[in-house]
Each structure stands twice: as C-alpha cells, then as structure tokens.
Amino acid sequence: MTILSFFSGTFCGKETITQEVAKAHGLRTFSDQDLIRAASELSSIPEKKISRAFLDKTSVFNKFTHDKERAIAYLRLALAQTLSESGSGGCGYKYQRKRGGGPDPSGR
Predict the structure, then answer these.
(1) Sign of the dihedral through C-alpha 76, 108, 104, 15
(2) Of 11, 18, 39, 77, whose Cβ has the fewest other Cβ atoms within 10 Å?
(3) Strand-pair partners of 31
(4) Radius of gyration of the chain, Cα coordinates, nearest whole angstrom
C-alpha cells in the first residue's frame, strides 16, 4: 500500500500538485479535514473538538476526561478506514497552522 503525505506552505498550489500525483499513481486523495469529518461521524464528537486534539495544547482537564486520546483514537480509525476503502493507498495533504494564529484547518 502506498501512502504519500504532502506538507506545503502558502500559495504553492498543494491541491493541484496532490491531485496530479494521485492521478499519475492511481491513488485517492484526502486531507486532514476529510479525516476530521470522518472521525466526527464515527464518534459523534464535534469536528472542532477533534481538530483541537492535534492542533492545540492539551487541556488541563484531559487527565480526567481523556478527550484528546479519544479524539486521536477516532482519527486513527478514520485513517485506517479511509486507507482500507481505497485499496491501493492514499495521497493526503496536511494543512499547516502557525502557532498563535493562522487559518483554522476546519475553515471556520
């Protein structure tokens, strides 16, 4: 199974490049947001809460709630299901977010 990950900066055309590479190799494309959406559907946890699990610092209450671990477990499950559905592999791209600001990958 082939898995390609693309990390890019602003204004570099990551979607176009990712689509062309995936097309050339017969792979399915997906983004972080696609995995967040799938994990949210699997778990009934809001998308915003799942995206915070791997973008923000751990909450002081996590010791009691284990929200971060639960969200990451559902992200792993969503990734596993996405890869198993595609059969031949996947081609994904990651949104980058600067510390202390920057665009929210969920588009909100």
Answers:
(1) positive
(2) 11
(3) 93
(4) 15
The four Cα atoms 17, 18, 24, 26 give a dihedral, to 10 degrees, of -170
CA angle 51, 73, 81 (to 5 degrees): 95
- Domain residue ranges of the chain, discontinuous segments joined by +: 2-94
Give the DSSP H/E element, type plus range, for residue 52: helix 47-55
- Among candidates 65, 80, 67, which has minimal Cα distance to 35? 80
Whole-number Å distance between alpha carbons of 37 and 2: 22
Q: Give the C-alpha separation, 67 to 54, whole Å.
A: 11
- Burial (0-12, 13-18, 19+ Cβ within 10 Å), 91: buried
Per-residue pLDDT tens digits of the chain, which is 108 residues long: 677 777 777 777 777 888 888 888 888 888 888 889 999 999 989 999 898 887 777 778 777 778 888 898 999 999 888 888 766 556 565 544 444 444 444 444
